[in-house]
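Recall from the previous lesson that a structure prediction takes nothing but the amino acid sequence as input. Here we apply that procedure to Translation initiation factor IF-3 from Shuttleworthella satelles DSM 14600. The sequence below is the only information supplied.
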Amino acid sequence: MDSLPVHFFHAIFGYVPGGVTISNELQINGQIRDREVRLIGVHGEQLGIMSAREAQKLADEAKLDLVKVAPQAKPPVCKIIDYGKYRYEMARKAKEAKRKQKQIELKEIRMSPNIDSNDLMTKTKAARKFLEKGNKVKITLRFRGREMAHVSASRHILEEFAESLEDIASVDKAPKMEGRSMSLVLAVKKN
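The prediction returns the following tokens.
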């Protein structure tokens, strides 16, 4: 590892020389330019306040990295850890947290103002399936040509659509004109 050039690590970990890091990366080893740091040892023990050079020496003796974990503290807090392992653990925790999150998607159903009642029932069934999965549904009426003259008369289609799903859904956003289309957003009712 000692034989690899410094710019190799900069390319992999996203560092810029001079202690500046790209994005929210932590400063490690030679990037720490503070005069004094509060040092936490390998096993989590407080080693006290010391110069950054002394802290780096202790990290080198342990054959680990000196990582600034709390840059806003006075003095900044540094920890002696294996940085590669630390990054791996943080990435794994972030991935796990993301997996546990429920992503609510916005599904769209498009219709024309002169839709037949059977087609409307089919669209209602599709919307019901989306809502049962926990997604929001945007119902859009698209107006073409002369249909634009009867926009206000077509509002009832969206209102009937919302009424047919009122047992599981509530209106999140009321019917609204957006260019040549009128849309309504339905969300799952919260019990």
